[in-house]
Specification:
This protein has 20 helices and 16 strands. The protein is an alpha/beta fold and 541 residues long.
């Protein structure tokens, strides 16, 4: 590690104690296990009252524990880097705590997005000015934009790089308008009208995708706060609770976590994203996801007086401009409803589709997608062989399947953020393939917020989502029914999905097979012989 201010002591296989000492000797002592979301906290009040210090110290402890546990050199290197970064942040905050004075400054905080007080830190004349936010504990300083009274995140070190607030970085359209509502979901662009000029030289979102993928990939069953803190602090520039919440939501909600972080991680990822809905933090997350996906769009197909229906497609249909089958299927079930088409992830889904087409002949690819391969397991395995290595590549930042999955989950969080800002109180969601995965994430995220619109019904068609998860939150997220239409002849889910997900069984292949009352499996095997045949052959219940 890079500082002697932070000390780590392992306790049993899963337990650990971590202590931070300020230069003046103030103490923070944390204790817990690798799976604990929050540790027990002891020490001097200036240290125990700073959430940024607590979260960064605990993120350090978890990464330090995992560094010592893993034997794989890539994983060890990743955790070593993350642990050192969090230790440096913790040491910097502890040093600033020593210099806290009585003077305060009011202003919006770009770390936690609260309008709050910031206590000034006594620093030397040549040092970068510093404040500590009284809400989140993050280091701040006055925004460098002329006549701006907001507070920017300070960063660490003594280099005088201009720091701008969240508004002047265009990560947030407006502190004041963060909770504004829109009439209908297709008005979402109104939520991205910025009050201030973008004065930041670089955008954090440009590198967020690859970094998030790398954290999931090298972290294995990484505990939620460590992941959230790593992304929120190192990529987002946040600190403390804001870093954790932002970072967790950057991963895309529960569906990402269920595949990459384990069930416990998934629960807290969704909770963090849901808690942010309708707030400035939620607005920032939504803006981040929409900004990094140039294909994201919500398009109204038809108006009507009923409950709005939103439709998302996925793998094998994403580049097809013909929405006829999907629209007819939805129209038959909801003739009086306004219908919206959700466009998303064109880049990621195109790469995934291109992988199949590039490595298989056109005839093979069509056979694989439509299900003929699924009728003969030997033929299916032989057909999949050329693309299997690409689906299993260890560098998850370049793995086309993994990047498409992460995009689906982020799309779900972004959609939830937009729906939470509308004046509509109920929605119906319809999703196919990875589009169904996005809708699961959206529903679960909305379900954690008591103020968000309700999801009356969720229709999943050939859902690319694994069975092994706690589906209680999904069942409770809908007021009506989760209708899961699955086909055991779906070759894409039976072979490609299982290969990419290390043998995981998709709910679109075998059903959820759970006992939660609002989730109903609908076997459509007799009607659907392949991954692209759901819209033409399924009647929504």
């Amino acid at each position: 590690m890079t500082t002697d201010a932070v000390l780590f002591k392992p306790v049993s296989h899963d337990g650990m104690i971590c202590e931070v000492r300020s230069p003046f000797g103030l103490l923070l002592r944390l204790e817990g296990t690798i799976t604990a979301v929050e540790p027990t906290v002891e020490g001097d009040p200036p240290m125990t009252g700073n959430l940024a210090l607590i979260h960064n110290t605990w993120a350090y402890a978890k990464n330090e524990k995992l560094f010592r546990r893993y034997k794989d050199e890539k994983k060890k290197a990743s955790h070593r880097q993350q642990a050192d970064s969090h230790a440096d942040v913790a040491a910097e905050i502890a040093k600033l705590i020593d210099g806290l004075g009585d003077d305060t400054r009011s202003g919006w905080c770009s770390a936690c997005y609260a309008r709050t007080e910031h206590r000034k830190v006594k620093t030397g004349r040549l040092s970068v000015p510093a404040y500590l936010c009284e809400t989140c504990g993050g280091p701040t300083l006055k925004c460098a934009a002329p006549q701006c009274f907001n507070m920017a995140t300070r960063g660490s070190g003594s280099v005088r790089i201009p720091r701008f607030c969240a508004e002047h970085r265009h990560e947030l359209p407006s502190f004041e308008r963060a909770a504004d509502k829109i009439e209908t979901v297709d008005d979402y662009e109104q939520l991205r009208v910025f009050d201030k000029s973008n004065l930041s030289r670089g955008s954090k979102y440009a590198m967020a995708g690859a970094f998030a993928a790398g954290v999931v990939g090298t972290g294995g069953l990484l505990a939620a706060p460590a992941v959230g803190g790593a992304i929120g602090t190192l990529v987002g520039g946040y600190a403390g609770a804001a870093a954790t919440s932002y970072g967790l939501a950057m991963l895309g909600g529960g569906a990402v976590a269920a595949g990459g972080l384990g069930m416990v991680g998934g629960t807290y990822v969704v909770a963090a994203a849901g808690a942010a809905l309708g707030t400035a933090l939620g607005a920032s997350i939504t803006n981040a996801y929409v900004s990094e996906d140039s294909s994201f769009a919500i398009e109204k197909f038809r108006d009507g007086p009923g409950i709005p229906v939103i439709v998302a497609r996925g793998f094998t249909t994403e580049k097809d401009p013909n929405w006829k089958s999907a629209m007819q299927m939805v129209e038959k079930r909801y003739p009086d409803s306004p219908i919206y088409r959700l466009h998303w992830g064109s880049k990621e889904l195109s790469k995934l589709a291109s992988l199949v087409v590039k490595n298989l002949s056109t005839k093979q690819a069509m056979t694989f997608a439509t299900g003929a391969a699924a009728r003969a397991s030997k033929l299916a395995a032989k057909t999949l062989a050329p693309i299997a290595p690409a689906l299993l590549v260890s560098d998850l930042a370049t793995n086309p399947w993994h990047t498409a999955v992460v995009r689906a989950d982020r799309t779900g969080v972004a959609l939830a953020g937009i729906l939470a800002r509308t004046k509509v109180d109920r929605y119906i969601l319809v999703g196919h393939s990875l589009g169904a995965r996005a809708m699961i994430t959206a529903a679960e995220t909305l379900g954690t917020s008591k103020d968000a619109p309700a999801i009356e019904t969720l229709h999943l068609l050939g859902a690319a989502e694994g069975k092994k998860a706690d589906w209680r939150p999904l069942s409770e997220a809908v007021t009506g029914t989760v209708n899961n239409y699955y086909s055991t002849k779906d070759g894409v889910l039976k072979y490609a999905y299982a290969t990419a997900q290390a043998g995981s069984v998709a709910v679109g292949l075998k059903g959820f097979e759970c006992k939660y009352p609002n989730i109903k499996d609908r076997d459509v095997t007799a009607k659907v012989a392949g991954h692209s045949e759901y819209f033409d052959n399924v009647k929504l219940l």
